[in-house]
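In the design runs reported in the main text, the only information available to the sequence generator was the tokenized backbone. The following block is the verbatim input for one such run; it is reproduced so that readers can re-run the procedure and compare outputs position by position.
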């Protein structure tokens, strides 16, 4: 395998202003790392011809592969082609298939194409043109003075399509690495990153192929398994074996793989058990219900939710007694249980789940911000409530309450 240096250049003033994050560079680095291609520099440059030209010249002097994202659009500040032409003197021409595609798009939309849209069909003469199947501007691969330049749209979904379909196969041949590399993500809930790593320390220390990488994400802890071999069957076998080894140790915390979410797994379990869910939310204000109904097909198992943020709503709509509120308060085990019981009955569901607490920043009923109660009531007669003290600002506490509610519900359904 050839040892090559790669570099990314992202073109766009909006990146420098922080209006959008440069997620393209992060994703591209992850992809190239899988194929043993070393990424030495990330550069972000604004929409200025001379500064883009300077960034290109510097990259040309130090990298073997330069991947550029952005600046291929129809407006006057899309200057990627012009800047590269300044350093290469390569001729720019209109790519007929791309132009036909752009014209067909506007015709289908029954809208008038402005002349500047023709800019998107311009490519360097002699370049390998990459068909953008989800957008307008094509990508390009250009060889210049023994360096490889790859130009891609800045829109993430367009860039990712071209990388997967064209760029990675091209780079595999260029570097001589034609191994099959495959990754899968294992997702866990109810266990922290450090605890997960501790439980799996012997497996991690002995890793070689597949490699094992524990990662903390916003809504869960994940393990990325990456295997490589020249045989697809062998890669799948390696991933399957390591997954089984991991789940033998921490399977009780496992909920899904790759794009699966905990809410999608909850909906699947509800369908499997022919159960229905109803939700009563105070501090989360509908966030938990929103998570559940975001899953396709949730209407068959999610009867609905009641946002009972105000005390009078808890009384009048949900049926929490005035006496209970006076004696125990709305931030209490007793109130959470009644909320779960009553929402289940009122919405004719198999399971009721509720959450009540203090999001902050101020105290409520003498209770500090972060105090939260989550309760579940099942038509089997099982009911319970759990107490938590979350840290963070108001929205962080609401979000953590939602995630913990999903975790509790998943574990209850899983049994």
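Verbatim output:
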């Amino acid at each position: 395998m050839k040892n090559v240096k790669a570099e990314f250049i992202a073109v766009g003033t909006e990146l420098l202003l922080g209006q959008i994050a440069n997620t393209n560079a992060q994703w591209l680095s992850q992809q190239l790392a899988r194929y043993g291609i070393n990424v030495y520099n990330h550069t972000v440059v604004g929409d200025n011809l001379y500064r883009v030209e300077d960034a290109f010249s510097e990259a040309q002097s130090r990298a073997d592969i330069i991947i550029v994202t952005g600046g291929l659009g129809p407006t006057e500040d899309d200057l990627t082609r012009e800047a590269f032409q300044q350093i290469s003197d390569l001729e720019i021409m209109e790519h007929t298939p791309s132009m036909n595609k752009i014209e067909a798009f506007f015709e289908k939309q029954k809208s008038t194409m402005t002349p500047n849209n023709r800019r998107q069909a311009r490519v360097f003469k002699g370049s390998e043109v990459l068909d953008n199947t989800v957008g307008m501007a094509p990508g390009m691969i250009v060889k210049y003075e023994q360096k490889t330049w790859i130009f891609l749209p800045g829109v993430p979904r367009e860039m990712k399509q071209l990388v997967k379909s064209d760029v990675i196969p091209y780079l595999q041949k260029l570097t001589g690495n034609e191994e099959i590399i495959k990754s899968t993500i294992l997702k866990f809930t109810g266990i922290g990153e450090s605890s997960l790593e501790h439980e799996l320390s012997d497996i991690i220390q002995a890793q070689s192929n597949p490699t094992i990488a524990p990662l903390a994400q916003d809504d869960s802890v994940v393990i990325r398994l990456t295997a490589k071999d020249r045989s697809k069957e062998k890669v799948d076998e390696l991933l399957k074996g390591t997954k089984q080894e991991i789940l033998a140790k921490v399977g009780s915390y496992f909920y899904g793989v790759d794009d699966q979410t905990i809410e999608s797994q909850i909906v699947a379990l509800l369908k499997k058990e022919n159960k229905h869910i109803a939700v009563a939310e105070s501090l989360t204000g509908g966030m938990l219900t929103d998570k559940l109904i975001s899953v396709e097909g949730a209407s068959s198992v999610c009867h609905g939710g009641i946002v009972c943020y105000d005390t009078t709503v808890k009384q009048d709509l949900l049926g929490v007694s005035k006496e209970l509120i006076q004696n125990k308060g709305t931030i209490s085990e007793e109130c959470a249980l009644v909320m779960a019981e009553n929402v289940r009955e009122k919405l004719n569901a198999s399971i009721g789940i509720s959450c009540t607490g203090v999001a902050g920043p101020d105290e409520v009923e003498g209770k500090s911000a972060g105090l939260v109660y989550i309760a579940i009531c099942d038509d089997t007669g099982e009911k319970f409530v759990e107490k938590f003290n979350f840290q963070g600002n108001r929205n962080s506490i609401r979000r953590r309450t939602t995630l913990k509610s999903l975790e509790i519900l998943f574990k209850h359904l899983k049994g």
